[in-house]
Specification:
The chain has 671 residues and is an alpha/beta fold. It folds into four domains: 3-180 and 237-279, Rossmann fold, CATH 3.40.50; 193-235, no CATH class; 341-494, 3-Layer(aba) Sandwich (Rossmann fold); 519-653, Rossmann fold. The protein is built from 27 helices and 17 strands. It has a seven-stranded mixed sheet, sandwiched between helices. The chain has a five-stranded parallel sheet with strand order 1-2-3-5-4, sandwiched between helices. Strand 2, helix 7 (151-163) and strand 3 (167-173) form a beta-alpha-beta unit. Helix 9 runs antiparallel to helix 10.
Length: 671
């Protein structure tokens, strides 16, 4: 019988024996592995915090006490312990359990997360609110070693130390990027620092020394320097001590006894901020994920085939647990897809880098996800990974451009939101030729509200000097990338995470900036698409043609500058103009077309009377998680949904098909 399934909530963990706790940990791992093998998700980080999650929930009283999961992709064990076991098989599916904490799912989820580095600020706010209200709940935040280096996290640490906010910070060091000093003296010192005796005697000692006649102040300063030197010699974490945060650790993160002892003492003795440095292994309990922390980070994972358990490699002498290992035939079982846009772009960037030694590449902690690891392998001296620091990435790129280089910065659309000021103040104000790869533009899918690339186009359209482009297919992506490097202004190239159309390669000649493309001719309706949604525009045109409508299609390519001449010429005489984008409609590409036609309509009566329907993502709500196919259907951005919206608009306008519905193609669809 499953112990995990018998738990009514995290409070039940406190009634279990140590042996039962270990069994719960094994059941949590098995559930995560089995589920993620089907749904995809952030496997490695969640497997690494199983014991840590159990320990925190045994010691704290959630949801009265608050556990904040920074980023949130490590919260699968937390979800399983807080009432979502039965529905966990719906992980990241439409209408199912979210891949990140969501307040709508459970009172145990403190915040809606998804971006790294936010947890410390949230937890600090919760702790100060508690103090102002005079309540006594405990506040803990679990933050990863990479997220801790983000600018927002460092700002929060500085404020937490300065204000001496009473809270527990758990540093989940799963990459061992913070060099630990593991030894008896370090462990001993951590125990001393968590004791009431140490904290009380230190205050008493400092008070006595400071009262010494004549030399009190000097003696106190010398004493503090000596104590600091001993701490620095004995263990890492002096940065935190300097910020006013008591550092404890490192603690083996898969040793339940060590976690219980250290976290219990830390919570019991909280008088100010305490950071407990916990070392974990990503993918713990699933050998392929342990061996390939990057590949199994998520959300799209390598193929997983489960077989009977085998022992796993222990960490810091902690007891090993079961492991599910893929078969040797896993690669053959993977469903073959055409290369996605990211892979196509990465290959073209390497070719451009070979031709131009000025080209350099920058990633904000995502070399594999953005494909820039390929550029780094080819040109290691011209590849810069700045970590989770999108703001620095853009300003750093501006400096490189000012120095005569041609930087390419690849950032997911959702994370580029974090660097808006740097895009405005540094890149655009200085009008530097920084090419920005806006990866994961449009609907991303299972990662949900925090990750959909919905908002970049409206934000970017207002910026002087910035060119904004998106291709209709992966071969046009190669051409537009070449265009970006052939011009001298900031250049934002938007592309989705989708697979391409498996088109044959073309010569990637640059496309003149601002030049769109007429794909279909028609007399009744004009569809103007921006980005890969153009393929759905063509399919929609075919559907409408079957009903007697003559439909033209334009591949806009540019949201800024628009090809106003082409759009105006093709709009004249039409009974309806429809814009298509996989972005929020308010202020987006469709708004740009509407504004252009309004400007032209002041002097051209034939344009002034044309009704315009903008089709895109809703601007009044976030789009939840689910497969991209499901989300496009739900938001009516698949071909059937677009057709339905066009027909609804036609009905509102009372239009009938023209007598002649002939149409002609300007070029092949796959061009």
């Amino acid at each position: 019988m499953s112990i995990l399934a018998s738990l009514d909530g995290p409070a039940d963990l406190r009634t279990l024996t140590p042996q039962e706790i270990r069994r719960v940990c094994a059941e949590i791992r098995a559930t995560i592995i089995e589920t993620v093998a089907t749904t995809g998700g952030h496997l490695g980080s969640s497997l690494g915090v199983v014991e840590l999650t159990v320990a925190l929930h045994r010691l704290m009283h959630s949801p009265t006490d608050h556990i904040v999961w920074d980023t949130g992709h490590q919260a699968y064990p937390h979800k399983l312990l807080t009432g979502r076991l039965e529905r966990f098989g719906t992980l990241r599916q439409l209408g199912g359990v979210g891949g990140f904490p969501r307040r709508s799912e459970s009172p145990h989820d403190v915040m809606d997360g998804g971006h790294a580095g936010t947890g410390l600020s949230i937890a600090a706010g919760l702790a100060l609110a508690r103090d102002l209200k005079g309540t006594d709940e405990q506040i803990a935040v679990v933050v990863g070693d990479a997220a801790l280096m983000s600018g927002l996290a460092l700002e929060a640490l500085n404020d937490i130390g300065q204000r001496q906010i009473r809270m527990l910070i758990v540093l989940n060091d799963n990459e061992m990027s913070i060099s630990p000093t593991v030894g008896a003296f370090s462990k001993y010192l951590s125990r001393i620092k968590l004791s009431r005796t140490w904290r009380g005697s230190r205050r008493t000692y400092d008070d006595l020394v400071s009262r010494l006649p004549l030399v009190g102040t000097t003696a106190l300063e010398l004493s503090r320097r000596l104590r600091k030197s001993v701490v620095t010699f004995a263990q890492p974490g002096q940065l935190f001590e300097d910020l006013g945060i008591t550092y404890v650790g490192p603690v083996p993160g898969h040793d339940l006894k060590a976690l219980d002892f250290t976290l219990r003492r830390a919570l019991d003795q909280l008088e100010g901020p305490v950071i407990v440095h916990v070392r974990t292994r990503k993918g713990r309990g699933y050998r392929p994920a342990e061996a390939d922390a990057i590949g199994f980070h998520g959300a799209a994972l390598p193929p997983m085939t489960l077989v009977p358990a085998v022992p796993t490699t222990p960490l810091n002498g902690a007891a090993s647990d079961g492991d599910a290992t893929p078969s040797n035939a896993q690669a053959a079982a993977a469903r073959k897809k055409p290369p996605n846009y990211t892979a196509v772009l990465a290959g073209e960037l390497v070719r451009i880098g070979t031709e131009d030694p000025r080209v350099v590449a920058i990633t904000a902690g995502m070399p594999t996800g953005t494909g820039l690891n390929r550029f780094g392998a080819a040109f290691p001296d011209r590849m810069y990974d700045v970590g989770i620091a999108e703001q620095h990435a853009l300003t750093f790129a501006t400096g490189l451009a000012l120095g005569g280089l041609r930087p390419f910065v690849a950032i997911y659309s959702t994370f580029l939101q974090r660097a808006f000021d740097q895009l405005v103040h540094d890149v655009c104000q200085n009008d530097q030729p920084v090419v920005i790869g806006v990866d994961r533009a449009g609907l991303v899918g299972e990662d949900g509200t925090s990750h959909q690339g919905m908002f970049s186009i409206p934000a970017q359209r207002q910026l002087p000097n910035l060119v904004i482009a998106s291709p209709k297919d992966e071969q046009e992506l190669r051409r537009l990338l070449r265009t970006g490097f052939s011009q001298d202004h900031p250049f934002a190239l938007h592309y989705p995470r989708d697979p391409g159309f498996d088109l044959p390669e073309v010569e990637p000649t640059p496309i003149p900036v601002g030049q769109g493309e007429a794909l279909l001719d028609g007399t009744d309706v004009l569809l103007i698409g921006f980005g890969p949604i153009v393929a759905r525009a063509i399919e929609t045109a075919d559907r409408l043609a079957a009903a007697g409508w003559s439909v033209g299609v334009i591949n806009a390519r540019w949201a800024k500058p628009l090809d106003r001449k082409l759009i105006t010429e093709k709009s004249r005489g039409k009974r309806l103009v429809v814009t298509l984008e996989e972005s929020v409609v308010d202020g987006g590409f469709g708004s740009a077309v509407l504004e252009a036609l309004e400007d032209e309509g002041r002097t051209d009566a034939a344009v002034r009377a044309i009704p315009v329907k903008r089709i895109g993502l809703p601007s009044d709500r976030f789009v939840d998680h689910g497969s991209v196919t499901d989300l496009r259907r739900m938001t009516r951005l698949d071909a059937a949904g677009i057709e339905a919206q066009v027909l609804e608009t036609i009905a509102e306008l009372g239009l009938e098909p023209a007598a002649s519905s002939g149409r002609g193609r300007f070029e092949a669809r796959t061009a």
